[in-house]
Amino acid sequence: xxxxxxxxxxxxxxxxxxxxxxxxxxxxxxxxxxxxxxxxxxxxxxxxxxxxxxxxxxxxxxxxxxxxxxxxxxxxxxxxxxxxxxxxxxxxxxxxxxxxxxxxxxxxxxxxxxxxxxxxxxxxxxxxxxxxxxxxxxxxxxxxxxxxxxxxxxxxxxxxxxxxxxxxxxxxxxxxxxxxxxxxxxxxxxxxxxxxxxxxxxxxxxxxxxxxxxxxxxxxxxxxxxxxxxxxxxxxxxxxxxxxxxxxxxxxxxxxxxxxxxxxxxxxxxxxxxxxxxxxxxxxxxxxxxxxxxxxxxxxxxxxxxxxxxxxxxxxxxxxxxxxxxxxxxxxxxxxxxxxxxxxxxxxxxxxxxxxxxxxxxxxx
Length: 365
Prior knowledge:
By secondary structure, the chain is an alpha+beta fold. The protein is 28% helix and 28% strand. The protein contains nine helices and 21 strands.
């Protein structure tokens, strides 16, 4: 597949830097010999002579500073590889390391949440896979390494207000070698909140809601929530790490990666389906992309947003497999949760909350 990502065309006449990013071979043109030398050093673990799949042309406007140019290259190489593999793999916004047995630990969080710092600390003893993106096969969770330069924040502010980032070779950071192959084994969500709580297990439903915003092209997958749920369950569930200093938890995370955890039970799947059009005073569901249920915890994907429902919310959403009147929904709620003197008011409030969050449609809506 030859994908041309064009920003500003230029041709320096110098040989490009060719790297393998998440299994995708990307050609990076260089503006001068200095840029070529820098990029080859920064991408030393990903250099390849294999045939090019993606040709990347980097815009020069506003990138006169070599540091900004190199970071832009890193970002665009990652985006190019993600675009080529969209809809074929599960891609997480996460750092990753692997032990000698090939078991990989994914460290998931939003930008600025501590992925690079955590990955760097762990990769002093565990193999470095990526500090930004985990791209894995759906069948066996094999990870395609992305040993890109580390993106390290500085105190210097750009005109945009963002911190300037440096691109540091993983070799210069003395990170452990990058494994040729690894398979996802554990998932940890980083919560750098300054506490000393440490590792806390999450339910799969809780983890899904937090992970969905840190995925790429999730909605292009068949049964996207079920696919993500199966990955989490195969890994023995997910954990949140509450911490202040990541180095205090390196041993804990290393032990977690090597631990023997059973796979979690599979969820009930609620794939998208046609529903009867509402009539008169009936409530109805909004079209959903996918949904999975673990006991009374239900995750519903609307567009690319995941919503976690529990208790009465779960009961009502399930009852709306077909459009229903308020009276019928109250009867369902009473049967499921028992009689209550304010049953109708409680159901109405719950329905309004579902409607306000874009999960159901009010009568006449």
